[in-house]
C-alpha cells in the first residue's frame, strides 16, 4: 500500500511543479514492527516526505486517525486505511469532486464510497446476519440525521484543511464508529459533503468481530446521540476563533 501511495504521489509531483505532499503513518501502539518498517522505508526513499507518529498507548482507530490529522500540514488532508483495500489513485477523483463543492469559508468533505458495490455478488452472498446488521445500522444513521451518505464507513475520506481541523479538534469518539461523529460534525458546521465511488476490494485479516463490534458500535452510537443531545459534548468553531490557518 505504501509503495502504491508513493508511486502515485511522486508521479503527480513530477508532472506538477506546484504539487507537494507528506505521508503520515500512525502506529497505534502496535507490536508488529510498523514504525520500524516505515522508518526503514523512509531511509531508502529519501525523496519521500514521510513522518511516523508512534503512539505509546493504543487509541483505537478513531483516536489514531485524529492524532494523524492534527499533525498534518497540507491544504488537503486525506485519511486512508493502511490495508490497501481502496485504490489510492482514486484520490484524484475525490479531489476533483471536492474542489467543486468547497464553500466560501473553505470547508469541504469528500467521502469515498463503496455503495455502488452493494448489489455485487460478494455483498449479495454475505450471511443473513451481516446484511441484517448493515440495514439496521443504516436505519439508526437515518434517525441520527445522516440520510444522504450511503457509505459512512469507508476508510478513504478527503478534507480541506479548515474542514479537517474544525472537525477533528472537536472529536470525542475513538472507536470504529468515529466516522459517524466526523459526518455529524461536518453537518453541524454546514460543510458541503460529496460522496464519490471508489475502487475497493475485500482484504483478508480484518480484526472486526461481527457480533461483538456491532454491539459496541450500537452503544457508541447511543453515546454520541446522548452526549450531543444533552449538551455534554461541546462544539467549538475553531475557524471563527482564528485558530485555524491555511498552510
TrEMBL record:
Top-level taxon: Eukaryota
Pfam families membership: Glycos_transf_2 (PF00535)
Organism the protein comes from: Rhizophagus irregularis (strain DAOM 197198w)
PANTHER family (UniProt xref): DOLICHYL-PHOSPHATE BETA-GLUCOSYLTRANSFERASE, GLYCOSYL TRANSFERASE
Family, as annotated: Belongs to the glycosyltransferase 2 family.
Intracellular or extracellular location(s): Endoplasmic reticulum membrane
A single BP term in Gene Ontology: protein N-linked glycosylation
Enzyme class: transferase
InterPro entries, A to Z: DPG_synthase (IPR035518), Glyco_trans_2-like (IPR001173), Nucleotide-diphossugar_trans (IPR029044)
E.C. number: 2.4.1.117
Glycosyltransferase 2-like domain segment(s): 2-164
One GO CC term, this protein: endoplasmic reticulum membrane
A molecular-function term among this protein's GO annotations: dolichyl-phosphate beta-glucosyltransferase activity
Pathway given in the UniProt record: Protein modification; protein glycosylation
Protein name (database record): dolichyl-phosphate beta-glucosyltransferase
Catalytic reactions of this protein: a di-trans,poly-cis-dolichyl phosphate + UDP-alpha-D-glucose = a di-trans,poly-cis-dolichyl beta-D-glucosyl phosphate + UDP
Amino acid at each position: 500500500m505504501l509503495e502504491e501511495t508513493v508511486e502515485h504521489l511522486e508521479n503527480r509531483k513530477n508532472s506538477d511543479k506546484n504539487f507537494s505532499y507528506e505521508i503520515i503513518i500512525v502506529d497505534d501502539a502496535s507490536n508488529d514492527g510498523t514504525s520500524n518498517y516505515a522508518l526503514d522505508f523512509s531511509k531508502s526513499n529519501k525523496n519521500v516526505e514521510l513522518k511516523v507518529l508512534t503512539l505509546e498507548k493504543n487509541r483505537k482507530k478513531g483516536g489514531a486517525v485524529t492524532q494523524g490529522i492534527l499533525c498534518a500540514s497540507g491544504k488537503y488532508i486525506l485519511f486512508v486505511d493502511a490495508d490497501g483495500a481502496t485504490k489510492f489513485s482514486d484520490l484524484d477523483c475525490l479531489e476533483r469532486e471536492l474542489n467543486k463543492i468547497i464553500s466560501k469559508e473553505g470547508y469541504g468533505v469528500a467521502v469515498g464510497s463503496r455503495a455502488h458495490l452493494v448489489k455485487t455478488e460478494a455483498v449479495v452472498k454475505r450471511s443473513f446476519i451481516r446484511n441484517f446488521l448493515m440495514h439496521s445500522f443504516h436505519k439508526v444513521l437515518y434517525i441520527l440525521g445522516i440520510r444522504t451518505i450511503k457509505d459512512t464507513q469507508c476508510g478513504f475520506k478527503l478534507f480541506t484543511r479548515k474542514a479537517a481541523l474544525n472537525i477533528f479538534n472537536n472529536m470525542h469518539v475513538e472507536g470504529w464508529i468515529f466516522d459517524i461523529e466526523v459526518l455529524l460534525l461536518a453537518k453541524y458546521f454546514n460543510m458541503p459533503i460529496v460522496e464519490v465511488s471508489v475502487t475497493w476490494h475485500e482484504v483478508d485479516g480484518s480484526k472486526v468481530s461481527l457480533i461483538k463490534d456491532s454491539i459496541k458500535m450500537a452503544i457508541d452510537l447511543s453515546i454520541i446521540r446522548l452526549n450531543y443531545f444533552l449538551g455534554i459534548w461541546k462544539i467549538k468553531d475553531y475557524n471563527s476563533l482564528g485558530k485555524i490557518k491555511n498552510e
